[in-house]
Amino acid sequence: MYLFLSDFHFGLGTPEAQARRRQDFFACLDHYADRLEALCINGDLFDFWFEWKRVILKDHFSILCKLKGIADRGAAIHYLAGNHDFALSRFLQDEIGAQIHRDEHVFETGGRRFYLQHGDGLAPADWGYRLLKRLFRSRFNQKLYSLLHPDFALEFAHLCSRTSRNHSSRRWDVDGWAYREAARAKIHQGFDYVIYSHTHEPLLEPLGRGVYVNTGDWLKHNSYAVWEDGVMTLKYWGMPWMERSQEEGYSKRQVGTG
Ligand SMILES: [Mn+2]
């Protein structure tokens, strides 16, 4: 089975809130560990990520160990860059065995074609953000940044992380119009499943002959998608009554509305 999740934003929130989120995440991974073929992290696992040549972020030590454990058990780990954790260098690849995808991830299994992307900058109103993205992702700027002392650099990063958050146009994101249209275009190209994230709004929607899924987030929804026995299901950790499979059709439900 394939597991798709995103937007944990570890590093964001109080230590207690993060510990709870981490517990839920680990419990979810453990639940599927025995039959997990591939873990697809669709961006923003970390609220900020950066690697110096010989330094990594110790705050995320336990999460990195968990991922290593999953890889060691034989599951593939696909890590797609989000708008918060785009500065992926070689660590996850070399030390954990994850496959890094900086833009999109396309694969085929069981005769089905999958298209994955974090989805930041998809909305037309996000032009300001797209500019910022170019700035953040420029090699020169990342090189400059790497010259800073890590403790200072991380303080600075929290500031930028907030800016990036404010610059993603929520108006369009929540509406999801741009995402649905982008997914429709991909399905038109022949994909069976299009998986986006970033909006933090979980969604499963059959579109034509394909299915669009948004993995939602773990700040509010604890949502994720599972592909098993040829069926995609949108799930909510700890809330089994919320789940919807592609066979049940359109699903956009909020926690608390039953
Ligand atoms: Mn995002």
Descriptive account of the structure:
It is a single chain. With 258 residues, the chain is α/β, with parallel strands linked by helices. The protein has a single domain, classed as Metallo-dependent phosphatases (Purple Acid Phosphatase, chain A, domain 2, 4-Layer Sandwich). It is built from eight helices and twelve strands. The strands form two sheets. A seven-stranded mixed sheet has the order 4-3-2-1-10-11-12, covered by helices on one side. The chain has a five-stranded mixed sheet with strand order 5-6-7-9-8, covered by helices on one side. The chain starts with a strand and ends in a 13-residue tail after the last strand. It binds manganese (II) ion. Manganese (II) ion is lined by residues 7, 43-44, 82-84, 118, 120, 198.
Give the topology, please.
Blueprint: E1 2-5, H1 15-32, E2 38-41, H2 61-72, E3 76-80, H3 91-96, E4 99-101, E5 104-109, E6 112-117, H4 127-137, H5 139-146, H6 150-167, H7 170-175, H8 177-188, E7 193-196, E8 203-207, E9 210-214, E10 223-228, E11 231-236, E12 244-245
Parallel strand pairs: 1-2, 2-3, 3-4, 6-7, 7-9
Antiparallel strand pairs: 1-10, 5-6, 8-9, 10-11, 11-12
The protein binds manganese (II) ion (MN).
Manganese (II) ion (MN) binds at residues 7, 43-44, 82-84, 118, 120, 198.
